[in-house]
Amino acid sequence: MKQIKESDSYSINLACGHEIPIVSAACEEPTDITEKILSDVKERMPVVEGYLKGRKVSVLRDSGCSGVIVRKDLISNDQLTGVDQLCVLIDGTVRKIPEAIVAVDTPFFTGSLKALCMKRPVYDLIIGNVPGVRGPENPDPKLSVKEVPSEQCEPHNVEETASVEIGTSVESRDEPEVAADQMIPSDDVGDDSDIGGAVETRAQKQKRNENLKPLKTANVPMDDVTPEQLRQAQKEDSTLKNCFKHVGNPRPLKGKEGISEFILRNDILYRKVSGNDKPSDQLVVPEKFKIK
Known about the structure:
By secondary structure, the protein is an alpha+beta fold. The protein is 13% helix and 30% strand. Strands 2-1-11-15-14-13-12-10 form an eight-stranded mixed beta sheet. Strands 3-4-9-5-8-7 form a six-stranded mixed β-barrel. Residues 168-196 are annotated as: Disordered.
């Protein structure tokens, strides 16, 4: 089984206080499940032509991603920032991925962006929910929106991501209690080759640290835990039973950090928090992985 790796998109908050972005269109090794999700992504989200440094590229507007992904071989070394970000991929892995500054010209966004450089993203450029971006159904009419035929957009052996929807009505009941050190930001997990899906910027981390107390680290390094081991440990953890009961609740819950709901992504339990400065997804860490 693969180890959990580091990645970026919406974001996931770890119990230790870190936050990792979620990437809806990337995975290390395609499986039947990830291929199905990718097919759904292609049906729901527009893929158009755009330009990166004057070069024509395929562009996916991913409403389930909190950042920007670019194919690594389109980036030159002088565009790299020297920062590696964590992110979560659709297959549940977490990765540490190099960051670059890119200038793009697309129907959804024109200007400079920070982007994560992946070797095999589904498309050349994936634009998530970043400030100033247009919605998937609202491209700039002044720019040519040429749909890219699906046969020309097959994944380059993909790194996929799942989309997350935020509920609108709020449950008046308090959310189930989960220890602070059981929530891990999606960006605290591993190495480009062994992690899988959330990223946190330095500014986000600094802002978060101003309001959060230092959290305990896990007994077992998260980059040594496979997605299957994490799923099993969550299901066997009696302290998480109430959290699982709230999965699928159409009315989000009120908590200290804002409005939240519990969701399953690839059968792994997360807490989605909104209603504050930055929506985030928090990986719920089982007791066995917490420091005693």
